[in-house]
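Quick question, first post here. What does this chain look like in 3D?
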Amino acid sequence: MAAIALTIAGSDSGGGAGVQADLKTFSALGVYGASVVTALTAQNTRAVAMIEPASVAMIAAQIAAVFDDLAIGAVKLGMIGDAAAIATVADALAERSAPVVLDPVMVAKSGDRLIPGAAVDALRARLLPTSLLLTPNLPEAAALLGCAPARDEAAMAAQGQALRALGPQAVLMKGGHGAGETCVDLLVEAGGVTRLTAPRRMTRNTHGTGCTLSAAVAAGLAQGMALRAAVARAHDYLQGAIAAADELAVGSGHGPVHHFHAVWPRG
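> Answer (accepted):
Ran it through. Tokens below.
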């Protein structure tokens, strides 16, 4: 029986992030992907031109349809457009038992804001407490806590613990916005902190990195992996996708990572 993961997120017409990135990631890691589209976006590698949220009725209907028929092993949450949509998703997931990986998407790689400020409050109150894992980058963690972004590992760990106090069982603090030759992520759990490192790669093709990482963790959970193992594999997978990103040459802005770097032939 195939492992199945569900993404609840916005659609990226450029294919590099959102639902499209999640489904590519699930497939690349051997997991069947299902989807609930929370919003349509008109975007490419340069900008987000338009966002059109799905109705709360349609979001609820999609979730019900998927769970009524498919054995969902894990759920990845991405962009959920507003407070009403967040409440709808939270209410629906409260009735189900699949582990939740929450990527608190707020701003696109282009710099365009994806959710209104009021939705951040709803996300903090309704979705953080339902999550097994929260995966913020440094600006997102700061926005959720109402403080300045962490500038070193000690501050990252402290903010991770502060976010855990808001409800999620674990927090993966992503260091992509940090400085230095080494990129450091910290998995903050009740039992301690796990450090994951990789060389900081000089590429502008990093569109969809957050979506891809959280989807990769959800894929591992759907396959029955323990959280720490799922995070470690997801970290390695994303680093491979970033390392191969320039091979794609998609778009003229922030291009996507290479989700199928281990599958597509090179050269």
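The longest strand covers residues 32-43.
The beta strands are 4-12, 32-43, 48-53, 74-77, 100-102, 133-134, 170-173, 182-189, 192-199.
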